[in-house]
Amino acid sequence: MAKEFGRLKRIAQEIKKEIAIILQCKIRDPRLDGMITVSSVSVSRDLAYAKVFVTFLQDKNEVEIAFNLQILSRASGYIRTLLSQTMNIRMTPKLSFYHDNSFLIGMRISKLVSNITPSYQEGEIALKQSLALDSVQL
Where located (predicted)? Predict the structure, then answer.
């Protein structure tokens, strides 16, 4: 059975934290408007590559997301340099950025559930009233 790689998870968590700080404080590109959140980081076993999943907190369409990912990809060398200065690991992984749409999916599901809840409560009240009427008639 494969051993769970605790070290990889710790390194990925540290990379996530450091990239979030770098994106918030040190990247000053006016084309990157709004807040960028690092959702997760996936590191390869040999620490050569890291997939960085980001979320843009403003509502954006597909074109703006692709444009922002392209900007982040072009700045990945600079981000990697800053990351290597803050982290004490032998080899800093090559970064590739991906959009994480789980936040948008969660918001959509939450909205759907909140729309269903009032109709469910109305149906539950109607069911209780019909059961109460049936018991009165007996």
Answer: Cytoplasm
Q: How far is C-alpha 74 from the geometric centre of its chain's CA atoms?
A: 21
Name the region of 93 (left: φ>0; alpha: ψ -120 to 50; beta: rest): beta
For the stretch 58-62, contacts whose Cβ atoms lie closer than 8 Å and that sit 24 or more positions apart, written own/partner, are 58/33, 58/34, 60/34
Q: Which residue has the tokens 């918001």?
A: 107
From the number of C-beta atoms within 10 Å of its C-beta (0-12, 13-18, 19+), residue 71 rates as: middle
pLDDT at 97: 96
Of the candidates 97, 127, 88, 92, the residue with the CA atom closest to the CA atom of residue 27? 97
Which class for 87: exposed (0-12), middle (13-18), buried (19 or more C-beta within 10 A)?
A: middle
Helix (H) or strand (E) holding 30: none
Q: What is the DSSP letter of 54?
A: E
pTM here?
0.74
Quote the tokens at residue 34: 């709004």
| Parallel/antiparallel/unpaired status of strands 49-56 and 36-43 | antiparallel
Question: Quick one: pLDDT at residue 135?
Answer: 55
